[in-house]
Amino acid sequence: MLRSILAVIVGFVVITILNIIAVPLFGAVLPQSVAGPDGSLPATGWIIFNLAYGLIFAAVGGYIAARLAQRTELTHAAALAAVILLLGAFYAFSGGSAGPDLLPPPTWYLVVLPAVGVAGVMLGGWLRARQT
After folding, report:
1. Rounded to an integer, what distance in angstroms lies between the CA atom of residue 48 and that of residue 82?
2. For the segment 38-91, what is each residue's pLDDT rounded down to a tens digit?
3. Which of 12, 81, 110, 129 could form a disulfide with 118 if both were Cys (CB 3.0 to 4.6 A apart)?
4. Angle at the Cα of 92 (from 6 to 50), degrees rounded to 5?
5. What's the whole-model pTM score?
6. DSSP assignment of the chain
7. Domain range spanning residue 80?
8. CA 111 – CA 116 distance, rounded (Å)
9. Can you tell me the distance from the alpha carbon of 102 to that of 62, in angstroms, rounded to the nearest whole number?
10. Do residues 91 and 110 lie in contact, with contact meaning Cβ atoms separated by under 8 Å?
């Protein structure tokens, strides 16, 4: 039981750390792509890019959670996916505010982000399950 809980926690921490590193790094490397034409919302291209690397990071986290669990890989990936979904719902209901200096995301992003996270985590768990 403890191994299962730790596997899910580590998977989540991996996703979080990858995002903490990537968001400011990509924002610094591609600053002109962050703000949209009117400056009030993030640019659609930036959001799509964010979702793409978010899918990859979620897959890595799901894979790691499944690998650490060493059994019922998809069940552990599903547990991590549930955490992602709950936090995504909280983020959406809070209006998607990530900080006072950041542009608020469009409403569609608040729905798509947790769905992409769940898909990525389950993909990572599935990839690990295929190896065993």
Report:
1. 23
2. 666 677 888 898 899 999 999 999 999 999 999 999 999 999 999 999 999 998
3. 81
4. 75
5. 0.87
6. -HHHHHHHHHHHHHHHHHHHHHHHHHHHHSGGGTB-TTSSSB-HHHHHHHHHHHHHHHHHHHHHHHHHH-S-HHHHHHHHHHHHHHHHHHHHHTTS---TTSPPPPHHHHHHHHHHHHHHHHHHHHHHHHH-
7. 2-131
8. 9
9. 28
10. yes
Alpha carbon 72 to chain centroid, angstroms: 22
Total of domains in the chain: 1
d(CA 40, CA 23): 19
**In 10 A of CB 3, how many CB atoms?**
12
Distance CA 102, CA 52 (A): 20
Q: What gap in Å lies between CA 129 and CA 126, rounded to an integer?
A: 5
